[in-house]
Amino acid sequence: MTPAQKIEILQQLIQIPSVNAHEAEVADYLASLFAPYPQAKVERLTYAPGRDNLVVTIGDPTGPLLGLAGHMDVVAPGDETAWHHAPFGGEIVGDQLFGRGASDMKSGLAAITIAMLEALEQHQPLAGGVRLLATVGEETGEYGAAQLTDAGYADHLAGLVIAEPSGLDQVVYTARGVIDYKVVSTGKGVHSASPELGVNAITNLMKFYNAVGPMMAQHTQVDPVLGGLLHNVDLISGGEQVNSIPAHAELMANMRTIPAYPNQMLYDELEGLVAKLNQEPGVDLELTYSFPEEAIPGDPQAPLVQLAKQISDQVCGHDTQIVGSGGANDGAEFLRGKGDFTSIEIGPGSNTSHQPDEYISLAAYLQAIDFYEAFVPAFFQSTVVTH
Ligand SMILES: [Zn+2]
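A: This is the predicted complex of the input protein with zinc ion.
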C-alpha cells in the first residue's frame, strides 16, 4: 500500500460521522477492506441498529492470539464555529489531517487495520493469530467492548494492544477506573407554611452529600503512577418552587478509581451508606450507576509493556515512556475475558483529542503503521508468548 492509500483510508474513516452511533458504517468500510482476502475471518456483533462491533481474525488459529483493538465511535464535534476545518471533512494541510477522530482514534484504528491488511497482502506467515477488535460506544461507556468480551472474543488472548492516542512515545500499562453514580431523593411536596406535613427531599439528599465526601476521603492510599482515589459531586438539582417543600432532589458524582480500591468495594460502601440513611424516618434515597469501569492494574516490567517500548524505540528513534492513564479504556472490559493477559495502550495521537480542530500528524500516523507492522512478528517471537 502506498502512503497515499494509507492516508485515504484514514480520510474515509473520518468522513463517517460516527458520533456515539453509526459505527456500522465504519464496520462496513473496514470489512470492505478485508473483502479481497477470504482467509480473513470477518464477524459482526450488533449492539443496536446501526451499531455493529467488528472482529477480524487472520493468521494461524492454532498459535497464540494477539488482540489489536480500537473504537469506531467519536465524541461530538461540539461548537462547529470553533472549528477552522470541517469536523468530518478529513482535510489535509501540510502534515496535518484534521477532523473529529483524527487523534481519538481513527488514526490508531486505521493503523492497526492497515498493519493486518499489509500482512495479508504480503502473504506474511504469522506464527499465530491477529484479531482486530473494533468496538462501538467506547466514549460513552465501553459497552461494545463489554459485549465482545461477554461473547468470548477476548478469551485466551496472549496480549492486547489498544491503539488509543497515547502518542508512540508513551506506552500506557495501567489506567484509572470510573464510577459515575446518581442518587435520587424522593420526598413529599407540601406548602412551605406547613413543612411538618411533607418530607424535604433536599434535606435528605444533603445527608448523603455530607456523609459521602468524608467516607471516600478515608481512602488515602496513593497509586505510584495514577495518584489517589478521586470523588467529586458534579451535578445537583432539586426543588420545584420557593414556597414548596421539595419532593425531588438528585445529585450525580464522578469517581476515578485506582487498582487498590476495586469497584465492588466502593459500590458496597455507597450502597451501605444509602441503606443506613434510608432507615431514618422519611428518607428515601435511590442509588444507580451508569457504565462503571474497573481500573486496570499493571506491571511496568510485564513483557508486553517492555516489548512495545523496545519496538517503538527502534522504529521511532525516541525513548518511549512507560506511563499510567487517568482515563478508562476498552481494556477494562476486555480484561474480563478468560485467561490472563496484559493490555496496553499505544497509538498515534496529538493533544487535540475531543477538541475543535482535532488533527493527526501524517508522519506520526504512517510511523504508527510501521510500529504495528514491526510489533506483530516481534510479539510472536518474544517471551510474551510461551510456545
Ligand atoms: Zn479513545
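The domain at 177-293 is CATH 3.30.70.360 (Alpha-Beta Plaits). The chain has a mean pLDDT of 96.
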